[in-house]
Design goal:
The chain is of the alpha/beta class and 440 residues long. Helices cover 32% and strands 19% of the residues. The chain is built from 14 helices and 17 strands. The strands form 5 sheets. The chain has a 5-stranded parallel beta sheet with strand order 3-2-1-4-17, sandwiched between helices. It has a 5-stranded parallel beta sheet with strand order 6-13-7-8-9. α12 links the parallel β7 and β8.
Length: 440
């Protein structure tokens, strides 16, 4: 195990420092308030970005926050964790060779943080009670977004969450330096302030929670379970000590207040190419690992992690081995080495070459993707590992809806999950009014 030479907690401070007031004024003044603004179209939740920036510039941060939160109730988390560099900021008209795009994410954070700190009242009110009840499975971004919008529409909502805390990936799956100061729980508390939402924890679908029972006891059900299982390498010695799922490693870091207590290897290898792999690799380095190597079977242009995240890894001393696939885990009781084989494309197909090499390894983190556990979803159609929904987010079971990473929505992003939950809430509202007769 690596020897920590200083207070590791100092390595997990805020990755993106918030703007001060002077910076906020200067940055908001740069916005051109574009007509038919491309940044709005690039945002999965369609936040009116020019308007909220104009409200900040007009010294109305509370109004700006309301503009943001009316479209994205988790605008605070998305301001911290969304890849704005490939969404709204990428299409900013100022994003040229001679000028930088507006810092939309940091401006969004400024507005939402101001409201959460300074406003005593919830910015949204509930509609009159509909008398209808909705069960939501999963207290992650999709589930909580659906819960909040459903409560706004006057429905009574009960959220069933498998873990001890709400928040889903916002609480358990993002790097600690992206979500400091217990922000995920503060955001949950803010969402609950609207009223009409109850959360019951330690309720796992297929274990002590069953879809059929929810159908019988509620007027509608929303499934927002995310992808709650991980893929295996299917290699010998994968069960050896020191071979860990990256999501479990990240969760442990997030749930440990004193990062000095988190054990990390000296020679850490991360297998994968997404943002989860980057989060695991960077945090291993910041915990004190001497050597951290990320191994990926294709080229950098094929990585699902954003260019910003890949650059962040390199700046933190992570070595990235491309065109390399894990071939053999070498271990007695504890992992000792990883044998890799060089790969290449041949007629568009990835093949292994005859070239192999070996890396020292006392901790191996697997970040090769997550998958849905379908066993508890009896009766729900699943294709290619995702829940099938129609244009109204309804599954193959009438009155049962789904959203977030569990459906094929194109992007496994927090902001997309929030949009799914919001739109599903409106679809459920329409269903309740139509199915039960009259207006819901």
């Amino acid at each position: 195990m690596a020897q920590q030479k200083c207070d590791t907690n100092n390595n997990f401070t805020d990755l993106h420092k918030p703007l001060n007031l002077q910076q906020t004024i200067a940055e908001s003044a740069r916005c051109l308030y574009c007509y038919d603004a491309p940044c709005i179209k690039a945002c999965p939740t369609s936040i009116d970005i020019p308007t909220f920036i104009h409200q900040i510039r007009s010294d109305n941060p509370v109004g700006a926050a309301k503009t943001i939160l009316s479209q994205n109730i988790m605008g605070g988390t998305c301001a911290r964790a969304c890849p704005t560099e490939v969404l709204c900021e990428q299409v900013c008209v100022l994003n040229t060779a001679i000028e930088q795009p507006i810092e939309i994410g940091l401006l969004q954070r400024h507005a939402v943080d101001h409201l959460l700190k300074n406003s005593a009242n919830h910015p949204f009110q509930r509609a009159p009670s509909s008398g209808k009840s909705i069960a939501i499975i999963g207290a992650g971004p999709a589930g909580m977004s659906c819960a909040h919008r459903s409560a706004m529409l006057g429905h009574d909502v009960t959220v069933y969450e498998a873990k001890e805390k709400s928040g889903g990936l916002n609480e358990y799956g993002l790097a600690a330096y992206k979500m400091v100061d217990n922000y995920a729980q503060k955001e949950i508390e803010f969402i609950l302030d609207i009223g009409g939402i109850k959360i019951i924890h330690n309720q796992k679908l297929g274990d002590n929670l069953h879809l059929e029972n929810l159908q019988n006891n509620y007027d509608a059900v929303f499934i927002g379970v995310g992808l709650d299982a991980t893929w295996s390498l299917n290699q010998q010695n994968e069960e050896a000590e020191g071979v860990i799922d990256a999501v479990d490693f990240i969760e442990k870091i997030r749930q440990t207040d004193d990062k000095n207590q988190v054990q990390v290897g000296n020679d850490v290898i991360v297998i994968g190419a997404g943002n989860t792999a980057i989060d695991a690799a960077v945090q291993a380095k910041r915990l004190g690992a001497e050597n951290v190597t990320l191994v990926y079977r294709r080229g950098e242009e094929h990585m699902s992690a954003t260019a910003y995240e890949v650059d962040l890894a390199r700046k933190n001393g992570v070595i990235i081995k491309l065109w390399s696939a894990p071939k053999r885990i070498i271990a007695e009781e504890h992992v000792e080495q990883l044998e890799c084989v060089k790969t290449q494309l041949e007629n568009g197909k990835l093949i292994e070459t005859q070239i192999t090499y070996t890396l020292e390894c006392d901790m191996l983190l697997k970040a090769i993707g997550q998958k849905l556990e379908p066993e508890a979803l009896q009766g729900v159609d699943i294709e290619r590992g995702k829940i099938v929904v129609d244009e109204n987010y309804q599954t193959s079971i009438k009155g049962v809806f789904a959203g977030g990473d569990a459906i094929d929505c194109g992007e496994d992003l927090t902001v997309q999950a929030v949009e799914d939950g919001k739109q599903a809430a409106h679809a459920i509202d329409t269903f309740l009014g139509t199915f039960f007769g009259g207006q819901s």
